[in-house]
Amino acid sequence: xxxxxxxxxxxxxxxxxxxxxxxxxxxxxxxxxxxxxxxxxxxxxxxxxxxxxxxxxxxxxxxxxxxxxxxxxxxxxxxxxxxxxxxxxxxxxxxxxxxxxxxxxxxxxxxxxxxxxxxxxxxxxxxxxxxxxxxxxxxxxxxxxxxxxxxxxxxxxxxxxxxxxxxxxxxxxxxxxxxxxxxxxxxxxxxxxxxxxxxxxxxxxxxxxxxxxxxxxxxxxxxxxxxxxxxxxxxxxxxxxxxxxxxxxxxxxxxxxxxxxxxxxxxxxxxxxxxxxxxxxxxxxxxxxxxxxxxxxxxxxxxxxxxxxxxxxxxxxxxxxxxxxxxxxxxxxxxxxxxxxxxxxxxxxxxxxxxxxxxxxxxxxxxxxxxxxxxxxxxxxxxxxxxxxxxxx
Length: 393
Fold this sequence. Notes:
Blueprint: E1 7-8, E2 10-13, E3 18-20, H1 27-35, E4 39-40, E5 48-51, E6 59-62, H2 77-93, E7 98-105, E8 110-117, E9 123-129, H3 135-147, E10 150-157, H4 162-165, E11 171-172, H5 176-185, E12 187-193, E13 201-207, E14 210-211, E15 216-218, E16 221-225, E17 232-234, E18 237-239, H6 241-247, H7 260-311, H8 316-329, H9 354-367, H10 379-383
Parallel strand pairs: 9-10, 10-12
Antiparallel strand pairs: 1-6, 2-3, 2-4, 5-6, 7-8, 8-9, 11-15, 12-13, 13-16, 14-15, 17-18
């Protein structure tokens, strides 16, 4: 490609049929027809030549290297490859829509890099802007699209992306073009060809925030989306799963409240996350209950075994006292509360099983309310009970 040359992917024959450069199968025939003057630029109707090679993409170029189209710009390899990649991405994203390169908007005399023609009649223009143009020129082109009823998306070349190139923590929009796009859309998007070994093309996107100085953005969100196949378009914005996961936050979701489709999507994900969280908490509770049941069952098995062993050691006097107290308080050996099997200090010095003397203490001092508290600091206090010749030590 020659310096300053305006390359064309789409030309017309003398009957107005569109010819796409990279869909040509018989190159020699196309070159002969170009020499006969059978192909022209769709805009200025000037004659074109067909150029091809083994390294670069095939394309058409003006024979006189000039075009009357007001928005024509010198083509570059970056721009050629980028808009083809965008066309491929959009074709996969909208399989029921028609995707065309270098589409002419008759009413405004604009030629879009890529145009998506939806079955509904809606038109979406995608401009891959690699050259630096003033913000006023961009606003003029944006307003022309609006006047024509065309929704326009602007993607910048990665060489304009200063914040990705810098080690500074700030996000920069150094050019008037970047700031104009950001002030209009609330985001700015760059397309970068990382090469096949690094995942191919990717989008780098700054979303939201504000310009705290002429060029520095604050409180903005940054995303690197690669490959571009993971990116879709929602609410007229570039969107992918990473952004969804990022905004699933009670604080960050507020930043997209003005985008109803995106906000609803994120809000639904938040509800799903909360539902899953509650489900996990409930399952953890059930697991704990199950574990405790197993633990308690084992405990009560051991308790019953201990009771049986203690019951075999009971004397006739102790048995008589125990039955009497059980009848009085409505207990049986099986229903006796575990509190009466408590191991306390020095209790091993008392030969009478704990469930007997502890039930007796309960009846004597707590049930009868003779004392608010019972203290058993040493065995000598218990020895006073021996006067009744019921308990033994």
